[in-house]
Specification:
- The chain is of the alpha/beta class.
- It folds into 2 domains: about 5-160, Alpha/beta knot (3-Layer(aba) Sandwich); about 175-240, Orthogonal Bundle (Helicase, Ruva Protein, domain 3).
- The chain has 10 helices and 7 strands.
- The protein has a 7-stranded parallel sheet.
- Helix 1 links the parallel strand 1 and strand 2 (about 30-35).
- The protein is elongated, with a radius of gyration of 29 Å.
- The termini are far apart.
């Protein structure tokens, strides 16, 4: 993700959370971390929790003020679990991410996360254009700092248009002819074992055809099913001859 989006941790008190937040960022392709008045940084605990994202900690900027942290930014979003004045625009992570991605095309965007104990203060939020609230169970709305960063970072990645990485298929999709032959084979075996009985044969055949269409089997899967049907036929044949 190439968008200039800045994750700003304000007054973080636990170095482990700083490291875990850096890891969450790198998982989702974010790289710009700013720490405002961290209680302990640099920290061995932060480095350990960051795992393979220690490079984000090495590049992280440390400032004494939010003003310095958001310098040069356009949109500034502040995370908050507590209800605020009705004058605030409040966005959920998905809506906030879409807005952040859109506006990052013009200027860098900053997302502020408050400290573990009290979150962002009203003075901190005065620098923000909108609040970002993660809808959680009202009986326990407090999120761990790194968890909150992970949720927002994931939404940012999705809003930027990230696509899941797909593995190469083991076999190509079965052709219509292969699926038709499987269906015909299945019909023969059902008749051999007497499964049709008093059933509506045409309706049963149509439903099985639709089932195979929805499954979209590949060539190997069709071969496996044909082999299974052949084994059933052999078993039925041995029973008839005994």
């Amino acid at each position: 993700m190439n968008q200039p989006i800045r994750i700003v941790l304000v007054d973080p008190s636990h170095p482990g959370n700083v490291g875990a937040a850096a890891r969450a960022m790198k998982n989702m392709g974010l790289s710009e971390l700013v720490l405002v008045r961290p209680k302990e940084f640099p920290s061995d605990e932060a480095t350990v929790r960051a795992s393979q994202a220690a490079d984000l900690l090495e590049r992280a900027r440390v400032t004494d003020s939010i003003g310095a942290a958001i310098e040069g930014c356009g949109l500034v979003l502040g995370t908050s679990a507590r209800p605020r004045s009705a004058n605030w625009t409040v966005l959920d992570p998905r809506a906030a991410a879409r807005r952040a991605i859109d506006e990052s095309a013009l200027r860098p965007v900053a997302v502020l996360f408050g400290g573990e104990r009290n979150g962002l203060s009203n003075d901190d939020l005065a620098t923000c254009h909108a609040l970002l609230n993660v809808p959680a169970d009202p009986r326990y709305e407090s999120l761990n700092l790194a968890q909150a960063v992970q949720i927002v970072a994931w939404e940012l990645r999705m809003a930027a248009g990230a696509q899941p990485r797909r593995l190469a298929p083991e076999a190509p999709p079965a052709t219509p002819e292969q699926v038709a032959n499987l269906h015909a084979h299945l019909a023969v075996v059902l008749a051999q074992i007497g499964f049709t009985g008093e059933r509506n044969i045409a309706n049963l055949g149509f439903r099985l055809q639709r089932l195979l269409a929805r499954a979209v089997p590949d060539e190997k899967e069709v071969q496996i099913l044909r082999g299974l049907l052949t084994a059933v036929q052999r078993s039925v044949g041995r029973g008839a001859g005994s």
